[in-house]
Amino acid sequence: MTTIDASAARARLLEIIKDKAIVHGRVTLSSGKEADYYVDLRRISLDGEAAPLVGIVMRELTKDLTYAAVGGLTLGADPVATSMLHAAAAAGERLDAFVVRKAGKAHGLQQRIEGPSIKGRQVLVVEDTTTTGASPLAAVEAAREDGAEVVAVATIADRATGAGEKITAEAGVEYRYAFSLEELGLA
């Protein structure tokens, strides 16, 4: 298996995002706002070439933080967390992933958070792209309710709509992103 350094991974991931994930045209975002483009990062986080790069880039972005598990609100966070889990394993390190449901299950164990327990652990909340901050804020709240210490929120792409400031103000955690609108050629 060949290894790729973080700067090469970042450069290639940016190329793939620009090529496959940016859709031009009028769209309505989950926030209800309209935009002239859509950044569909599931096309990246679930892509066989790009997903491993996501893990490398996101781990590099957060390498100065201490956390034992990574996850966020399903569905955007799931492949990001899984990519990071696999990148950690490839580097000979351990990182667990968790999934935050939008609502608790009404059957089984009725858990809102799936995966290894995060109670008493430091965790990183992730997302693929951030517009309003609502999804990572919901994930932070759920993780804290489950007894975890959230160290930060990290996303692949930030839409520069004030979500970072909102997350920092409301959740009291640092917000980081791998790519800005300028880097994606959208600003």
TrEMBL record:
Binding site for 5-phospho-alpha-D-ribose 1-diphosphate: 101-102, 105, 107, 127-135
One matching Pfam family: Pribosyltran
GO molecular function: glycosyltransferase activity
Reaction catalysis annotation: orotidine 5'-phosphate + diphosphate = orotate + 5-phospho-alpha-D-ribose 1-diphosphate
Domain of life the protein comes from: Bacteria
Key word Magnesium present: yes
Residues at which orotate binds: 131, 159
Ranges where the Phosphoribosyltransferase domain occurs: 84-166
Main enzyme class: transferase
InterPro entries (alphabetical): OPRT (IPR023031), Or_phspho_trans_dom (IPR004467), PRTase-like (IPR029057), PRTase_dom (IPR000836)
Pathway info: Pyrimidine metabolism; UMP biosynthesis via de novo pathway; UMP from orotate: step 1/2
Keywords: Glycosyltransferase, Magnesium, Pyrimidine biosynthesis, Transferase
Cofactor(s) essential for the protein: Mg(2+)
Protein EC: 2.4.2.10
Assigned protein family: Belongs to the purine/pyrimidine phosphoribosyltransferase family. PyrE subfamily.
NCBIfam families per the UniProt record, alphabetical: pyrE
Subunit structure, as described in the record: Homodimer.
Function as written in the Swiss-Prot or TrEMBL entry: Catalyzes the transfer of a ribosyl phosphate group from 5-phosphoribose 1-diphosphate to orotate, leading to the formation of orotidine monophosphate (OMP).
Protein's name according to its UniProt entry: Orotate phosphoribosyltransferase
Source organism per UniProt: Terrabacter carboxydivorans
Gene name for this UniProt entry: pyrE_1
